[in-house]
Amino acid sequence: MAQRTSPTERQKRLGAELHKMRVAAGVSAEAVASLLGVDRSKISNMERGLRAISPERLRSWACHCACPDGAYVDALAEMAESSSPGWWERYRGVLPGKLLDISELEAHAVRLKTAHTVHIPGLLQTVDHARTIFEVAVPALPQRELEARLVHRLERQQVLVKEGAPDYHGIVHEAALRMQFGGRAVARAQLEHLLNMSELSHVTLNVLPVSGGAFPGAGQTLVYAEGPVPQLDTAQTDSTHGPEFLYAEAQLSKYRAQLEWMERLSLGPDESRAFIHEIARQL
């Protein structure tokens, strides 16, 4: 298989899991290379996501490393399975690769949990709300990229309405609900859209009111994507420099605790819908 020049986050994650498995077992890269019948350099490239590994070779790797977790190995083998490119690949070379990695993360998640303080979650934004956000980017986005980001975001949102959509749990701070991005009419339409989405059986929204006080991660945007097994969970955070993908167990534990803390301070689903409705009525 040819070497990749720019592996996706999912490809890099698979490589990182292979490396973690091998190191935990105390097995040398040379030993794995001998087992698979490849050069030592190819093992390094596999562990960096630069080279693909077949499901069969992956299972041999796991067996040689004495990995006893069958569900974990099955999940890794599924990641290694060759498949047709996802819809987001149409945007390769048009949008930053990290944005496409978010699409891939959401598409493979078993469950999605998000926490937003000043923004409406991207999967729940109206096109007018999203356009307003993209129009104030610094530096300004070229018109072609702005329009591509809008279309890409709308395609991302299909993950919540497709057949077999993952469960989605969003925590939205009151501050985000009161932001009048695009003016009163756009803000009102955005709140009505939130109310409509919250009626879906697999979508849960909780509002964290300002009266809830302090909470960890205030001001941070967080997406927590649960994988088919807990070891493959991923936390994705945003910054002015772009999205970051985190999956060290200490990091995942921190963000799970953060979400649990915020949920304890939040209103229940019915109270949250009433709260959103009242803010919309005031506009």
From TrEMBL:
InterPro entries: Cro/C1-type_HTH, DUF5753, Lambda_DNA-bd_dom_sf
Residue ranges constituting the HTH cro/C1-type domain according to the UniProt record: 18-58
Entry-linked SUPFAM superfamilies: lambda repressor-like DNA-binding domains
Domain of life: Bacteria
CDD domains: HTH_XRE
Name of this chain's protein: Helix-turn-helix transcriptional regulator
Originating species: Streptomyces stramineus
Lineage of source species: Bacteria, Bacillati, Actinomycetota, Actinomycetes, Kitasatosporales
